[in-house]
Write a structure and sequence with these properties.
Layout (H helix, E strand, L loop, with lengths): L3 E2 H6 L1 H5 L6 H21 L2 E4 L8 E3 L5 E3 L6 E4 L19 H4 L9 H5 L1
Antiparallel strand pairs: 1-3, 2-5, 3-4
Protein name: non-specific serine/threonine protein kinase
Catalytic activity: L-seryl-[protein] + ATP = O-phospho-L-seryl-[protein] + ADP + H(+); L-threonyl-[protein] + ATP = O-phospho-L-threonyl-[protein] + ADP + H(+)
GO molecular function, one term: ATP binding
């Protein structure tokens, strides 16, 4: 099954000319699928996974435009009993990174860092 990044559907002008534009309903379904994936990472695993890397080129779409979260290179695991974790360095891409990862004035990092992006 072929997977194409969401970034390609958003920014590739060749796809726009070939009538492969995503309609609002499809974009809504993709956003909902990404949110369900994040819920699974935050609540559905024995160990919580903070992803830190939600951006269009890390979302792959299958033939039915069902999203798959990819590239877990910046992810961090932590125990489910912990709600806030401390980190020694920021993770993520500027423009998608949550403020608490950059600014030391905030308490710490939580699942909300993924939701921000």
């Amino acid at each position: 099954m072929l997977h194409v990044s969401l970034e390609r559907f958003i920014y590739d002008k060749r796809l726009h000319h070939q009538n492969h534009r995503l309609e609002w309903e499809a974009l809504y379904d993709i956003a909902l699928g990404i949110a369900k994936g994040l819920i699974f990472l935050h609540q559905g695993c024995n160990t919580r996974v903070l992803y830190f890397n939600i951006e269009p080129h890390n979302i792959l779409l299958d033939g039915n435009f069902y999203p798959k979260i990819s590239d877990f290179s910046l992810s961090k695991l932590f125990e489910t009993k912990e709600s806030i974790i401390s980190m020694s360095c920021a993770r993520g891409i500027i423009g998608y990174i949550a403020l608490e990862l950059v600014c030391r004035n905030f308490d710490g990092v939580s699942y909300k860092s993924d939701i921000y992006s």
